[in-house]
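[job 4471] stage=fold_predict status=RUNNING
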Amino acid sequence: MIFKLVGPSLGTEACALFLPLLLSAANSAWAEWVKITETTDTAFYADRASLGDKGNVRRVAVLQDYAKQEPGGVRSRRVSYEVDCTAERLRSLSVTEHLEPMARGTSVNSSARESEWMYVAPRTGSNLSRSTYRTILRFVCAG
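[job 4471] inference complete, writing structure tokens
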């Protein structure tokens, strides 16, 4: 069967602009999110299919689903992390915020910028907020 587009065709510039948005929406919709931990106000999910294996350095998509609306109307955040299993550290590679739960709806903020490495190994005096990151690290490095 042959399909023909009716109407004006999109130029290369338009395709380059809309393709990343389309893929981001499709990626969130088709992801198989597995709950890995939760706090009083946020549930954290990981997409097993996104796990990239490069030996001791791996990548994973993590969804932060907020119980209540955050500033700016944000209800969820999808973060791509790079995890160093040997050094027990991680950093974010990209972040996209959404107006609806589970990374659905309109994305309002998006950035593709590497953060500094954050060490998440249990240490004396480490704060509780890092326990979520330790859980992410354990999930990624276990497989």
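[job 4471] summary: Residues 1-7, 12-28 have pLDDT under 50 and may be disordered.
[job 4471] exit 0
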